[in-house]
Every structure is written in C-alpha cells, then in structure tokens.
Amino acid sequence: MQAINRKQLFVASCLALLVTSLSFGIRAGILARLGVQFQLNAEQLGTIAATAFWGFPLAIVFGGMVVDVIGMKKLLVGAGIFHLAGILLTVFATGYWSLFLSTLLIGLGNGTVEAACNPLVATIYSDNKTTKLNHFHLWFPGGIVIGTLLVFLLDKIGIGWQVQVGLMIIPTLLYLYLFSKLEFPVTERVASGVSTGEMYKALLNPLFIVMIILMFGTAITELFTGQWIDVLLKNVTDNAILLLTIETGIMVLGRAFAEPIVHRFSPAGVLLLSAIFATIGLYLLGHTTGNMLFVGAIAFGIGVCYFWPTMLGFVSENLPKTGAVGMNFMGGAGMFAVSVYMIFMGGYYDRLVNDKLATITNTDPAAALNEAKKAAGPEIINVTMIIPIILIVAFIGLNLYMRGRNKKVLQTA
C-alpha cells in the first residue's frame, strides 16, 4: 500500500484553495465587463456574485456530513468537477442564467474543497493543527491578490476575460492530478475510533455552540469588511482598492508566520489579540482620512488574518470529537452569516445614502451623491466595529475558561 505523503497532500490542498480564491479575485475584476457585455443591471450582477456565497455553505456543510463516509479523495474529485464545469460555463456564457449557474457551480466547488481539505490538513498535521491551517488558508488572500493582479496585467496587454477565467483550469487540473495519484488517510475522528453518533453528540457541547456563534462575528468582521472596503471608502480616498491590497497582503504574511505566534499565545490568546487589532483597524478606517487610513488597513489586516484558520484550529484541537462535521459547520456558519449581513448592510447603506442626500444642499446631483456616500461609508464601518468589540469581551471569557480547564487537566494528570 502506498504511504501517506503529507507534503504532497498539503501542496495539492493549497492548489485547490488557490482555485477557490482565484475565482473570487478574477470574478471581482471582470464583473463590470460581464454587466456591459450581457446588458445586466446592478441587481443581476449582485445576484450572480452572491451565488458563490450560497453554494459555499451548502457544499461545506453537506461535504462535512459525508466526508467520513465517502472519503476525502472522492470529495475532492467532486470539487474538481464542480470547478471545471463552472469555469467552462463562465468562459462560454451567453447571458444571465449561464453566469448564475456557473458561479453557483464554482461556489459548490469552493465549499467542497474546504469540506475535504480542512479535515485533511488537521489529520495529516494532527501535532500542529492551528499553525498548518493558517499556512493552508494563506492561499485564500494570496489567491485574491494573484487573481486581481492577473486581471490587471492581462487587461493591459489586451487579453480578454474569457482567457482570464480559463487560466483557472490549469491549477484545477493540477490539483485533480495530484489528488488522483495520492493515498489519503482516514479522517482523524475515524482513526481515533470516535463513532458517528458521538460526533453528532459532540456538536451539542456548549463550548462548540459558543464557537459557532463567535464564528458569525469573526467571519463578518473579516469577509464583509474585506469585500466592501472599496465600496465604503472609495469616496473618502482615491486609494480604496490599495487599502484592500494592503490588508490582503498583511493577511498572507501573518498566516505564513503563524507558528511562533500561535505557540506563544495559544489559539484562544491569538483570537483575543485579533479582535483587539480588528477593532483598532476599523476605528481608524471609520474615523480618519489620508495616510492614517493605511495605518488602519494594516491594523485591520493584522486583526483578521488569524480569525478563520484559528477558529477552525481551536475547534479541531479542543473539540476533536466534533470531527470533520464540526470544522465544516464552523466554515458554513461563517459564510452564511456573511451573506446575511451583506444583504442587511447593503439595504442599510442605501437608506443612509438617501438620508444624507436629503440634508445636502449641493445643487449638483453627482456631487451631492458623492458627498452622501462619503458620509455613509464610514458609518457602516463604525456599526460593524461593534462586532469585534463584543468579540474582545467574548474572547477574554474564552481565555479565562481555557485557563481554568487546562489547570483542571494538569491537576488530574
């Protein structure tokens, strides 16, 4: 029997996550052009973009429930089929419905990748889960940077959006080839002899329920703000997209050098520090202008870079009986919370802009709209800042709880 090659499994997992993040970066870069070419309005484009967020939680939750039954290998072959179908359908799109379906398929592929790869990384690096999950998840912000840069450079040399999307086929075929020839372990939960019944019972553990609720907050703080920085601050600064690039770059670096930080502060300690930095970053983004916005983007990037992988790592390390289902319920809960919050805050932003317009005396409609958006954007950031403030209190409680729990373990050892 072929030995488990954890290094190659990890590389293939990173390639699969790279396809996920490239799909976000490239689609963000070409969305406006799709609207022009297929004569789609803003609402239609918004719905097309949102389908990726619907497909992701569906796939990650369902995948988490079947991964122990069918195995990680089959699940990842399924992810590759979803990705290839979604990419090809985008390249040969003819209008709204083909773009809608293609984005849904890519979203399903993205969720299936995480459904299999999160428990895979936790299994092959069971001695160093949180660090390796951070290393794995650096390819999400990393791929977004690569995707947006690819769109920018290929646009400059006149290469069309179909080719830009088609390039994702290369890493998709690569990860499919690598996974097809590699031997997979069983998941850590199966290897340790924890039954399916015990796994589902572990989901009712009060600590797991608390972590699911906290995942709502960490995911919204990271993903909502990251997606909306350009919209919220483009009337405050000429460099709104640069703020996103800085934040994403900080996330890549932070996750790459996660090991000493996680070992020094523990996962619960890292989560508390993350919430503090995220709050400082959002405060600066919502209350300052000019160069201080870049300081805010750096602080915010430091804050959110560890949220997602460390939340997964904490659950995997401290609630191992929840297994793949536990990790994937966490991911699904986070993405679902972001999609709901985006819809709610999108409507709130529109109402704020309209309220501001009613108080502006400028007779030039375009200038008045810009002024209203300039005032409304930071207000959305300030409302969102309440979430990491609540997280600071919650993570102080989590640290105290874990300290008490660890003390009990040492006393009974």
Structure commentary:
The structure is a single chain. The relative contact order is 0.13. This protein has 2 domains: 1-193, MFS general substrate transporter like domains (Growth Hormone, Chain: A), CATH 1.20.1250.20; 198-413, Up-down Bundle (Growth Hormone, Chain: A). It has helices at residues 6-37, 42-70, 72-91, 96-124, 129-137, 139-156, 161-166, 169-181, 188-191, 196-202, 206-233, 240-256, 258-287, 292-304, 307-318, 323-359, 365-384, 386-412. The mean pLDDT is 87. It is 85% helix and 0% strand.
Mean pLDDT reading: 87
Question: Which percent range fits the helix content?
Answer: over 70%
Oligomeric form: single chain
CATH class of the largest domain: Mainly Alpha
What Rg is obtained from the alpha carbons, in whole angstroms? 22 Å
**Main sheet record:** none
Q: How does CATH name the architecture of the largest domain? A: Up-down Bundle
Number of helices: 18
Can you count the beta strands?
0
Q: Alpha-carbon distance between the termini?
A: 38 Å
CATH superfamily of the largest domain: MFS general substrate transporter like domains
Give the CA-based shape: globular
Q: Could you say which structural class the secondary elements and strand pairing correspond to?
A: mainly alpha
Unreliable runs, pLDDT <50, ≥5 residues?
Answer: none
Number of domains: 2
Strand and helix order: HHHHHHHHHHHHHHHHHH
User: What percentage of the residues does DSSP assign to strands (E)?
Assistant: under 5%
Stated plainly, the CATH topology of the largest domain is called Growth Hormone, Chain: A
